[in-house]
């Protein structure tokens, strides 16, 4: 979308604001990892659930970052956790693939 004034500087995308956003984001996700054994009861964007103990860091994260960034980081985190769960889920899936050998079936006469 075109801005009315293209020379306007959005302060939330400047380096200091980005660093504050990243710091708040990291604090929230560290809290999620630390409190992962507790039941998640709060709902974030994109269906991400988190425990009530992380509510304060979540509020700080949402305050420091643009809403679109929060949504992006939540999607990124959920995607990474989903992939990790798939990789760690079933130990039998690890290792070399066992492909069917040729002539597994007896030929019919």
UniProtKB/TrEMBL annotation:
Its main location: mitochondrion. It is found in: Mitochondrion. Coiled coil: none annotated. Keywords: Disulfide bond, Mitochondrion. It holds the Pfam family COX6B. It comes from the Eukaryota. GO terms for cellular component: mitochondrion. Residues 86-109 are annotated as: Disordered. InterPro entries: COA6_pln (IPR048282), COX6B-like (IPR048280), CX6/COA6-like_sf (IPR036549). PANTHER family: OS08G0441400 PROTEIN. This is Uncharacterized protein. It comes from Rhododendron simsii.
């Amino acid at each position: 979308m075109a801005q009315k004034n293209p020379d306007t500087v959005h302060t939330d995308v400047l380096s200091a604001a980005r660093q504050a956003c990243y710091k708040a984001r990291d604090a929230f996700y560290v809290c999620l990892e630390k409190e992962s054994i507790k039941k998640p009861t709060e709902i974030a964007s994109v269906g991400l659930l988190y425990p009530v103990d992380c509510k304060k860091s979540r509020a700080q994260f949402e305050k420091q970052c643009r809403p679109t960034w929060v949504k992006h980081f939540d999607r990124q985190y959920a995607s990474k956790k989903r992939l990790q769960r798939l990789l760690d889920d079933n130990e039998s899936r690890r290792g070399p693939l066992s492909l069917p050998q040729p002539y597994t079936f007896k030929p019919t006469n």
